[in-house]
């Protein structure tokens, strides 16, 4: 039933039944019309404000709750709902996993049209908080104000903030006092820097007008509780930079490496910047399985160290290695998977388009005395050719771990030409993985699948598939 109120269209009694792409809730009204709804969870019954139609489905916003889902839990975070980082913290973790599982089952049955009996239940995380090894905080001269603050106090003086950018309002930052995604020291370091900055009257960055002294803090930690900090400043004021960094070093002995960057560009990206080493070690060390990694300020690294090991173990098991295999690792990043498997194979060949990541892969191969791994920089589409396979030998196993968009169809065509007996497809987007499987089915059967939860409280899902060449 719907009732009109001015120009608003309110749809009543929408039952929320599942989760759609990007974590939106899926609901149906009493006539079976489907809505993608923000801020609701499966099990809720809601009245919604109908918004525009996108790709044939109406979007909606919760107007009021008729009934709350029994699967709701009290979010642990004081910033929940404002920060936007952990969208599902108010949903029981077991139920989050069920929905992630269902997302994989749906993609594989509807898009890939495979028998879903080969899909094992999702591997959940033991550590559902403090699982990230990297967090970026931003300074802004404009704090994000909640609707409640604006309503209760009328006009509020603009104040600065240190925390996370609010989605959709790039110049505003939610002031974070406690984040649960990284070890708690992240909060002590960030809050200390904020207090020190305020005592010394340092200015926070103004993203609209491009000025201000303090811009970003990148905090990385390893499982042994050692830390790397990269502080980014918008102005080259060395006296003040040293004053702040010295205070941070004095206060936090767990900081193993400290860098700073003076970024006077308009954007926050540090990939074209030169981090200046200020204190301690040049690298943070981390171990995945038996492999040691040196992580520099700009290195790419799996963000959840604990679940990365689980993921790589599944890849290794699916690859059924005997020590004789020639393995290709497509989209290798810093070679994490390639190096993890190197001890169990004859040769591993990694391909990755980011030059700095390949530099790290080579440094890490050397650090671990791995001599049977070679790495190439470039687009997989251009590097993986018939000639490349002639040079390196046909693969016995191909591991592929593309970004969310999945693989280009030319790469899939090349994989079909190469006819590797096994293909292990790691994906962070089951929908594009299922689309790619449709093409791969020409020569491959899907034998096993294992979803893994790398990011509790978010909608992200990792899924590993084993495909075997048809006989
Ligand atoms: C999901 S990550 C995989 C990372 C790696 N397997 C790991 O476990 O750390 C995808 C990687 O593919 C790279 N990439 C994206 N498109 C690419 C392309 N067309 N050719 C080569 N590399 C690409 C990205 O830079 C990124 O490092």
Explain this structure to me?
Helix content is 26%, strand content 31%. The protein is of the alpha+beta class. The protein folds into 3 domains: 2-67, Beta Barrel (OB fold (Dihydrolipoamide Acetyltransferase, E2P)); 96-127 and 304-469, Vaccinia Virus protein VP39 (Rossmann fold, 3-Layer(aba) Sandwich); 134-288, OB fold (Dihydrolipoamide Acetyltransferase, E2P) (Beta Barrel), CATH 2.40.50. A hairpin with a 2-residue loop joins strand 14 (284-288) and strand 15. Helix 1 (93-112) packs parallel to helix 11 (430-440). The chain is globular. The structure holds S-adenosylmethionine. S-adenosylmethionine (SAM) binds at residues 300, 302, 331-333, 336-337, 351-354, 357, 379-381, 401-403, 428.
Summarize the structure.
The protein is of the alpha+beta class.
Mean pLDDT, as a whole number? Answer: 94
Strand element count: 22
Low-confidence stretches: none
Question: According to CATH, what is the topology of the largest domain?
Answer: Rossmann fold
- The CATH class of the largest domain is Alpha Beta
SS-based class: alpha+beta
Cross-sheet strand order for the largest sheet? 9-8-7-10-11-12-13
Query: By CATH's scheme, which homologous superfamily of the largest domain applies?
Result: Vaccinia Virus protein VP39
Please tell me how large the radius of gyration is.
24 Å
Kindly state the percentage of residues in helix: 25-40%
Bound molecules: S-adenosylmethionine
The share of residues in extended strands comes to 25-35%
Question: What is the number of independent domains?
Answer: 3
CATH architecture of the largest domain: 3-Layer(aba) Sandwich
Tell me about the largest β-sheet: 7 strands, mixed
Rough outline: globular
* Spatial gap, N to C terminus: 55 Å
Q: What is the number of helical segments per DSSP (H or I, 4+ residues)?
A: 11
